[in-house]
Amino acid sequence: EDKQTINRKSFIEYMVYGARYHFPADPGKPRMGIPTAHSAPIYSQKILSSFGVVWPWEDFKNGVLGCTIVPLYPKLPQACINDLSLYAIFAAFDLIRIGNDEEKILAIEVLEKQLLLKV
Fold first, then answer.
1. In what order do the strands lie in the sheet containing 56-58?
2. Which residues are 64's β-sheet partners?
3. DSSP strand E in 3-118: where?
4. Of 6, 55, 61, 96, which sits 20 to 30 A from 14 (CA to CA)?
């Protein structure tokens, strides 16, 4: 059996150094959505957002008003509503995309904790 695996440490390194360039977060117009990055509930208590900016993934049925950013996949916001671990991972990924250095450090810690778990 030929089983392919991913080198998780290399994958995290790619996300840390490539996310801003390969998946830029171009802020959109103010819209309702599911909070991500430092606005996500899991991180909002740990990070004081700069200037009170809220970053949501657009979702007309749920969320808060803020400057939207495009999620990596169109159905990601709905998937994250149903899976808090997935939400933590992709909100951390967005911290890397739009966050400052301090926020990136927190995101890296979360990604390492979530993605380096043995399965």
1. 56-58, 30-35, 64-67
2. 33
3. 30-35, 56-58, 64-67
4. 55
* Token code pair at residue 9: 């440490």
The amino acid sitting at 98 is I
Other CB atoms within a 10 A radius of the CB of residue 106 amount to: 17
Under 8 Å CB-to-CB from 89, ≥6 apart: which residues? 110, 111, 114, 115
Domain boundaries, the chain: 8-115
**Beta carbons within 10 angstroms of residue 93's beta carbon:** 22
pLDDT in tens, the chain (119 residues): 667 888 888 888 888 899 889 999 888 899 999 999 999 988 877 776 556 788 999 987 878 999 999 999 999 999 999 999 999 999 999 999 998 888 899 999 999 888 887 54
Tokens of 118: 């043995």
Between CA 35 and CA 4 the distance in angstroms is 34
